[in-house]
Design goal:
Blueprint: H1 3-10, H2 22-34, H3 39-55, H4 59-75, H5 81-97, H6 101-115, H7 129-139, H8 146-167, H9 179-193, H10 205-209, H11 212-225, H12 232-245, H13 253-265, H14 271-284, H15 290-306, H16 316-336, H17 352-371, H18 375-386, H19 395-402, H20 410-413, H21 416-424, H22 431-445, H23 475-496, H24 503-519, H25 523-542, H26 548-569, H27 572-588, H28 594-597, H29 616-624, H30 630-633, E1 649-652, E2 658-661, H31 671-687, H32 690-699, H33 701-727
Antiparallel strand pairs: 1-2
Length: 760
């Protein structure tokens, strides 16, 4: 009998209850370390004995054989370990295939010990497919005895954890992240994670240490924490499928818990990949019930809160596009009563209250996402959402983005690319959109939570009760107002002229003006705001085409604002004048004050004049004594309503050289033209077929190219003529010109005529 066999036989006692013979086990271990080439034969012989003991059955000797295999495995790290491991895994496989729960648990424990060993040599042919399948099956054990069932399931979980540890970092092994493996591992873990209330725990010390749910969560977190960029999709997709197959979206609790574990476990730079998969899954379920879609949206919202590092990846606008698409679909479903474009007998029944709940969830999620973004991206998102207007259901989503908007730099919060289209919406016919845009401007400009202190609009004798928070204007604030103030004033002025404006519009305009005064005003801005308020008074007096209510409301707005700004300037004479006018109005025309007009509509309006009006000349004189710009104060505010047109003008000098002047800004009143053009464009793009739109856009190119070509040609001619003039010898101060045609009167240099293009 070979020596290695005798050494193996000697470790088994006559009575298996006595356990492994430790002295003989030490001799076997020493022999294996001294003669590593025999290690594979030792493993094969141990496997042979263990197979006989399993078949007989003699489970005591089975346990001794597995203990010996474990000790040899832990002690030996030579190059021959691979052949020994094959024998070891064969025995583990045999134990896992046995019907006895104790043998399954024994095999699992041995595999877990093996999984924690770092091998010195790589294995090119080892496969763990069987172990993934068997451990996953054990995770779903339905054994009758609840205690044993729990032990089997926990063994399966530990086994899967061991497989992941053994293979995840070994490039030579089969990729554990492949769908064929993930589709078994992830659902098995989720099944046990879901059993928190369903499994009865035994009071034994083994199970008291850690429950199956706690073990499952730890294993799941470890799996996700090891996932690289390319593996996120394969790890998350089975989660989505599991929640679909078991209808777990509707309850929300478990689905939210799963994705909280995912978001907290994966590497932070991969978070946006999870969000993208959730959005794709939401799109795939567009025609599912509202409760399912609401559950997915709720998960997205929670994930967005966790992923608050400041960015949600390179597809920020795609995220909001998907959410807005779902919002629009929900509104369409609610209006049509069907998930299909044409209602039929097979259509699912739409539950209006569920669609409303979904819409609220989408709006909440949009706000959650926006709150994770830096200021410049929030501006882009708001501009993107505005681009969806007019679309039913879009208005509340913008409000959710601006809610809680805080920005220290107004230049970043309101860049030109965002401010220009935003202001253009203040002139739209849709009163709801105009109100929404005003609310957005208010939310962005209000950096000290002052907005609610201006509501309701009223005459306050002492504004100190408002406790306004006023800080000195920063350099960025001054730059912003220097660049954009005139556009802001113009659109506020024009917004007051909208006939469809109601009380809420005038209240929002007052709040906006108040915030500009508190947040962004320097001395120059204060002067312009006073001029604007007086211009609004003139507007109410002269625009007889406006409804009576609107004219009264504009008077009230002007009075309330001058009352506010006079107290902020702290010029006593100015405050006194405003106070006197307001007192006169209370006695003679109370309908021109906010407490009256903004509460009750008035059908007629008497002629307004005299002491009930604010006098610009007096105000200019009063403020001039305090150092304000009197000349500017005395100048009436006129909104700059201009259109840009190109005009070519020629002027011939005494030398006959045509000098071209370009371009000129021709001031034309384009308010009505602009509004009509905007309406036509919107109507065309909403109703016209694509071919007609493409043809229209193409037709506009040719005239533009012709005009540009004409301008360039004209400039070239002018430049050529100017250069030819310069090539001539200049008139000589001595009185002669060398051209061979006699003498010409000398021209002094200071009287010489040069083309305008040649003069700096």
């Amino acid at each position: 009998i070979p020596r290695y066999k005798r050494l193996v036989d000697n470790i088994f006692p006559e009575d298996p209850e006595d356990g492994l013979v430790k002295a003989n086990m030490e001799k076997l271990t020493f022999y294996a370390l001294s003669a590593p080439e025999k290690l594979d034969r030792i493993g094969a012989y141990l496997s042979e004995r263990l197979s006989r003991d399993v078949a007989r059955p003699r489970y005591g000797y089975v346990c001794i054989a597995m203990e010996a295999l474990d000790q040899l495995l832990m002690a030996c790290h030579c190059q021959s370990i691979n052949l020994f491991v094959e024998s070891f895994l064969t025995m583990v496989r045999k134990l896992l295939e046995a019907d006895k729960p104790n043998l399954q648990i024994l095999g699992t424990n041995s595999f877990v010990k093996f999984a924690n060993i770092e091998e010195d040599t790589a294995s090119y042919h080892r496969s763990y497919d069987f172990f993934v399948s068997r451990f996953s099956e054990m995770c779903h054990s339905s054994y009758e005895d609840p205690d044993i069932r729990t032990k089997i399931r926990m063994a399966g979980i530990r086994g899967l954890q061991g497989v992941v540890r053994k293979t995840v970092n070994d490039e030579l092994q089969a990729n554990i992240w492949d769908p064929q493996h993930m589709d078994k591992i992830v659902p098995s873990l989720l099944f046990n994670l879901q059993q928190e209330e369903g499994i009865e725990r035994s009071p034994s010390p083994e199970t008291e240490k850690e429950s199956p749910v706690e073990l499952t969560e730890r294993c799941f977190r470890e799996l996700l924490g090891r996932a690289a960029y390319d593996n996120i999709k394969n790890a998350v997709k089975p989660v989505l499928m599991h929640l679909d197959n078991h209808s777990l979206w509707e309850s929300k609790t478990f689905s939210v818990r799963c994705f909280k574990i995912i978001m907290y476990s994966i590497q932070s730079q991969h978070s946006h990949l999870v969000i993208q998969q959730l959005l794709g899954h939401l799109d795939a379920n567009s025609k599912n019930s509202a409760r399912v879609r609401a559950g997915i949206v709720e998960v997205i919202s929670e994930a967005a809160v966790i992923e608050a590092s400041g960015s949600i990846g390179p597809t920020v606008l795609e995220v909001f596009n998907t959410l807005l698409k779902q919002l629009r679909l929900s509104v369409d479903y609610e209006l049509t009563g069907s998930y299909d474009s044409f209602a039929n007998l097979g259509s699912k029944v739409i539950k209006v209250h569920e669609e409303r709940q979904l819409q609220e969830a989408v709006i909440k999620t949009i706000g959650s996402f926006a709150n994770t973004l830096p200021t410049y991206q929030r501006s882009e998102v708001m501009l993107f959402i505005i681009g969806k207007i007019p679309v039913p259901g879009m208005y509340p989503s913008l409000g959710s983005v601006t809610a809680g908007f805080q920005s220290t730099n107004i230049l970043t919060a309101l860049p030109t690319s965002f401010l220009d289209p935003l202001l253009s919406f203040t002139l739209m016919e849709d009163a709801e959109i105009r109100l929404l845009v005003l609310d957005i401007l208010i939310s962005i400009i209000d950096r000290h939570d002052n907005r609610h202190k201006f509501s309701p609009v009223r005459i306050i004798s002492d504004i100190s009760v408002l406790k306004l928070k006023v800080d000195k204007c920063s350099r960025q604030d001054n730059l912003f107002m220097k660049k954009h103030s005139q556009r802001l004033y113009r659109h506020i002025y024009l917004a007051c002229k909208e006939e469809s404006s109601v009380q809420r519009h005038f209240e929002s305009l007052y709040t906006l003006l108040g915030l500009i005064c508190v947040e962004l005003a320097n001395e120059e801005v204060v002067v312009d705001l006073i001029r604007l308020a007086l211009a609004l008074q003139d507007l109410a007096l002269t625009e007889e085409a406006l409804p009576v209510y609107n004219r009264c409301a504009i008077h009230a707005l002007s009075a309330a604002y001058l009352n506010l700004i006079s107290q902020l300037t702290t010029v006593p004479t100015f405050c006194q004048h405003v106070h006197e006018v307001i007192e006169s109005r209370k006695k003679l025309v109370p309908f021109l004050l906010p407490e009256d007009v903004l509460v009750e509509n008035k059908n007629t309006m008497e002629k307004v004049e005299g002491e009930v009006l604010f006098v610009q000349a007096k105000i200019a004189e009063m403020l001039g004594g305090s150092g304000y710009n009197t000349e500017r104060l005395a100048t009436s505010y006129i909104p700059q309503i201009t259109g840009l047109t190109l005009s070519l003008s020629f002027k011939y000098t005494e030398t006959g050289c045509p000098v071209i002047f370009l371009p000129f800004l021709i001031h034309v009143n384009v308010e009505e033209l602009e509004r009509e053009r905007r309406r036509q464009v919107v109507e065309r793009f909403q109703t016209a077929p694509f071919e007609e739109i493409a043809a229209h856009c193409g037709a506009r190119v040719s005239p533009m190219l012709y005009c540009l070509s004409h301008v360039i040609d004209t400039c070239s001619i002018s430049l050529s003529l100017s250069l030819s003039l310069l090539d001539r010898p200049p008139p000589s101060p001595s009185g002669s010109v060398g051209n061979g045609h006699g003498r010409t009167r000398s021209v002094p240099v200071y009287e010489m005529k040069f083309p305008d293009l040649c003069v700096y």
